Amino acid sequence: AALALCRRSPYAGVRALEEWLARWPALPSARRARRVLQRLGERPLFAVDLASDLERAVFAGEDTLLVSEEEDEERPGAYLRCFDLAEGRLRWEVGPCRELEPLAVSPDGRRALVGGKSVLYAVDVLLGKETGRCALPFGDSECLAVDWERNLVLAGGEFEGTPERGPVVLLDARDPRELRRFEAFVEEVRSVGFLPGGRGAVAADAKGLYQFSLDDSTPRRTLAKTSEERRYVRRLRWVGGRTPGLAVAYSTGKVVLLPYELGSDRWRPPVELDPVPVGAFGAGGGIEALVATRAGDRLYVAAKQSEFGLRAWFLPGRKPPPRVLPPLAPGGLLWVALSPSERRLAVVREGRVEVWQLPGESLEVRGR
Questions:
Q1: Could you count the other beta carbons within 10 Å of the beta carbon of residue 170?
Q2: 286-299 core/surface letters (b: 16 or more CB in 10 A; e: else)
Q3: Which candidate, 187, 178, 229, places its Cα nearest to that of 206?
Q4: What angle do CA 261, 265, 271 make, to 5 degrees?
């Protein structure tokens, strides 16, 4: 029945095969099921073409994908769309809004936060209804970071006003409202993130990367400055696991891991991964997204150029040693997102979103 379902709906068939393997991993026919999964991983399990360009995508549960679509000349306004992956259909859409871009979903998949033009929207994922909004002090939203355990949001963007001062805003995630504003940044804040255990936050602007406390209990610390070699920080991603740290992608293609000692609040010397060939994009930011697994053993990097697409590493300090994984989802990418099971990856291209099965070790489904 699972193999028959694969022919009608690859995504639903993969889910059925994985559940079957989890129950009976030792049966002789399990080898055949794994071969089918391997073949299904050679093409997208789900794909949809849209008229206008897409911005971001994020999973809201294993079978639900939220996609933000920017406005175009034929259809003014930006939309947030929800797709049912198992049934392969559009479930709902919210819009038109103004320039939806950064997107975050709660761990239970019920709440979504999306940044727009000077506005942060809260959306009920099950009902497809806007549940609240909060004004933001900058024009274009560039980045969001959410601590769902403490219901806190950090937002940054391109500041409209005094050019030498740009804000990072701390908000309440339950009913979006501004709690505090940090203004010691330059014109545009491109990436933000929380540090674990309530140890503060990090933010990157055009001049450097900084660590700061949310209550001013400690002074702001400069972790890195811009240089001819690294230019500005394009993306940040916290990496957990046995060797926690901060993954930093620069506009020149350098990807650096900054190991962090949780007990002493100290940063160890950076570890450089293989540089990403951003090519002609250079200062335009060829690197679009960083995604890390919960165990902190893999880091996925997406870039715009078609010859690169998606790159993934086993991170330093873990076995097997650091190496690039097999190519996946070839072509230029604008965004990537991992599913809650970390077995599938959503990729955003120009006017198209796809869901891929991850290759290699991720196909080994262990018994319960």
A1: 17
A2: bbbbbbbbeebbbb
A3: 187
A4: 45
Whole-number Å distance between alpha carbons of 151 and 171: 8
Structure tokens given for 317 = 């300090």
- For the ranges 86-90, 203-207, 247-251, 315-319, which has the lowest average pLDDT? 315-319
Listed residue (343, 236, 288) closest to 53, CA to CA: 288
Question: What count of residues does the chain have?
Answer: 368
Exposed / middle / buried, residue 130 (Cβ in 10 Å: 0-12, 13-18, 19+): middle
Percent of the chain clearing pLDDT 90 (strictly above): 6
Summary mean pLDDT of the chain: 77
- The encoded tokens of residue 56 equal 């971001």
Read off the pLDDT band of 47 (50, 70, 90). confident
Where b means 16+ CB within 10 Å and e means fewer, 28-56 reads eebeebbeebeebbeebbbbbebebebbb
**If you write DSSP's letter for every residue of 240-275 in order, what string do you get?**
-SSS-EEEEEETTS-EEEEEEETTTTEEPPPEEPPP
Kindly state the helix (H) or strand (E) to which residue 344 belongs, with its residue range.
strand 344-349
Higher pLDDT, 297 or 52: 297
Query: Is residue 280 very low, low, confident or very high in pLDDT (cuts 50, 70, 90)?
Result: very low
Helix (H) or strand (E) holding 182: strand 177-185
Nearest to 346 by CA among 120, 55, 22, 114: 55
Q: What is the pLDDT of residue 32?
A: 77
| Angle formed by the axes of helices 29-40 and 10-23, nearest 10° | 150
Give the separation between CA 295 and CA 224, rounded to whole angstroms: 26
What is the distance between the alpha carbons of residues 144 and 104, in angstroms, rounded to a whole number? 7
pLDDT of residue 223: 84
d(CA 336, CA 156): 20
